[in-house]
């Protein structure tokens, strides 16, 4: 019986020591992800032609209205670069269409829906700057959030 009591006491001692062991409280994992920044709003500005490889009778094909505007919602905007002097083709649009997602750092770099043009830029504070590079025309733009 004395042996049984000794085993029981030893078991209780081990259980008590294990249950009372001190371990550092676990800390919540730190989040390295910065909360998303919203660039949503209306941006208005100007766009200008910076390069063109179009010559002769087609030299005005790169013309586009000088006013530009974007409406960002959920850090995304759509834009169509109008080319009013290009003959219309029902099977193919010479006016590139973009669906642009702005990254958390304010940058964007997107190909047009038809893959023929690229829009790249940056939003810093309340100003957006960027470039549009197409197969024959290049543009620069600047717009401010209103």
Level of helix content? 10-25%
What is the CATH topology descriptor? Lipocalin
Q: Which consecutive residue ranges, at least 5 long each, have pLDDT under 50?
A: 1-24
Could you say how many structural domains there are in total?
1
Notable characteristics:
single chain, 146 residues, mainly beta, Lipocalin, six-stranded antiparallel beta sheet, two-stranded antiparallel sheet, 8 strands, 12% helix, 38% strand
Chain-wise SSE layout:
Elements: H1 2-19, E1 41-52, E2 67-72, E3 76-80, E4 97-101, E5 107-111, E6 118-124, E7 127-133, E8 137-145
Antiparallel strand pairs: 1-2, 1-8, 3-4, 5-6, 6-7, 7-8
How would you sum up this structure in a few lines?
The chain has 146 residues and is mainly β. The protein has one helix at residues 2-19; strands spanning 41-52, 67-72, 76-80, 97-101, 107-111, 118-124, 127-133, 137-145. It has a six-stranded antiparallel β-sheet with strand order 2-1-8-7-6-5, with no helix packed on it. A two-stranded antiparallel ribbon has the order 3-4.
């Amino acid at each position: 019986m004395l042996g049984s009591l000794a085993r029981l006491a030893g078991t209780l001692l081990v259980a008590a020591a294990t249950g009372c062991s001190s371990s550092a409280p676990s800390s919540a994992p730190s989040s390295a992800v910065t909360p998303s920044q919203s660039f949503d709003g209306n941006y208005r500005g100007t766009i200008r032609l910076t390069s063109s490889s179009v010559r002769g009778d087609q030299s005005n094909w790169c013309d586009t209205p000088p006013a530009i505007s974007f409406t960002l919602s959920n850090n995304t905007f759509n834009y169509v670069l109008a080319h009013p002097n290009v003959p219309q083709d029902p099977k193919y649009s010479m006016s590139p269409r973009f669906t642009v997602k702005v990254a958390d750092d304010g940058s964007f770099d997107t190909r047009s829906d038809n893959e023929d043009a690229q829009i790249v830029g940056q939003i810093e504070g309340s100003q957006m700057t960027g470039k549009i590079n197409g197969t024959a025309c290049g543009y620069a733009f600047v717009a401010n959030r209103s």
